[in-house]
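Notebook B, p. 112. Complex prediction, attempt 2.
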Amino acid sequence: MKTYQLYIDGRFVEPQGGEWLDTVDPYRGDVWARIPRANATDVSRAVVAAKRAMTSGPWASFSASKRGHIIRKIGDLVVQNAKRLAEIEVRDNGKLLAEMHGQLDAIAQSWFYYAGLADKIEGSFIPIEKEGTVAFTSREPIGVVAALTAWNSPLGFVAAKCAPALAAGCAVVVKPSEFASASTLEFAALVGDAGLPDGVFNVVTGLGHEAGSALVEHPDVSKVTFTGSDTTGTRVYETAARGMKSVSLELGGKSPNIVFEDADLDLAASGAISGIFGAAGQMCTAGSRLLVQKSIRKVFTEKLVDLARQVRLGDPMDSQTNVGPIATPPQYQKVLDYIDVARKDGARCILGGKPATGPGLIGGQFIEPTIFTDVANNMRIAQEEVFGPILSIIEFETDEDAIEIANDVAYGLVAGVWTNSIGRAMRMSKALKVGTVWVNTYRAYSYMVPFGGMKRSGLGRESGIQAVDEYLETKSVFMSTAADARRNAFVMR
Ligand code: NAD
């Protein structure tokens, strides 16, 4: 069994309190590693190191191009270690190895992308209206960044947050989820080899209400970037507000996947399946509400059930597996509880609806792909995030109905639209109150395209050029060029 250490100021160190937390392989159900339980003192050491790195360390004086070179090397190291990192993440959270291979490729590309952006962060010279005065702006790193991440894609979140933060010239302290911290600590072991100075990248692991809240509260943290549930996100936002910190939040969803009668129904069915059963539904972007037009509801539901019956559950390391285990015991229980809630509220279970058992399903955390019909949009199963392989089918008649139902939730992360009408696709894209719309596709991501939520799904955007802005502040400089600058000191110019 591996025992990890905290990564602070360029070295691995023991937690000050001498305590560790077990980390469980969700497929096998055994403890495979121990991660340090950091306390407020450990967090403070990491933040102080990050602040020092940003103010007096070599990082502060590096040119933007030099920062870019180092970030590029981090991407190279991700490429060289991709297989190992992928396997560790699968061990930690039960994601499919097949999916992790693709994700590691995108993660490396993301580091390369922000490496290229580091020396394209520019201010502007503004030709202002005042004679004898010039004005210009510069874009400055916002300060020490606290990056708090969820368990479902730890390395993806590190790239999405830290690559633009480092490109901007910030230093970061990452607090990964206590359920899946190993891959982030393994990644930390690489950054020194890339030439990143001590203190620029730190990892403190531990519990959310201990290490996490100590990090958000720390007075020397200027920016909090958080991925997780909206409940925790709200708490983080409130705490950060007291310290007047800048905040980005990537939170949950209850996303509509909308199938119109004019769609390619085979394509739509496979999109609906991957949208809810991919990653066992443990995606912020899960298409958990399937809105189906009344005229095709029967035929489409049959197609869907046929496809869902073919889903292969099993070992996430096996390339033949489609769906792995639920990642954590509390999450497993939560999914089962929601199945009960849906039944009690009157939804009809037409597939699954119970724990999955059988050969190869060890560890006790599998749930059958589950489909409910007769779901009304005001039921809890249609309004609350489950984060599991549970699909609710909701019927609609007109485009207007679809828009109303789709938008009638607290969340606004993503939506899928399946239609062969360009006009309808455009009208829906405009009307849906979500951060991302997928037309005739689902789960399409790119590190080049902004991603984030509206409403309770969050604040700010990750990915794309504008993600760097989340880690910058603009400074304006006015400078007198007049030969004789004397003037009445009591009159504003
Ligand atoms: P969570 O909110 O329980 O935890 C997220 C992180 O916050 C963890 O690191 C946790 O330790 C920490 N934390 C917990 N309490 C804290 C506190 N009081 N102060 C500071 N930090 C604290 O979420 P989770 O269960 O790890 O992840 C699942 C959630 O994440 C789902 O709601 C999912 O939709 C969301 N998510 C969103 C996105 C997105 O990009 N929008 C991506 C993936 C997951």
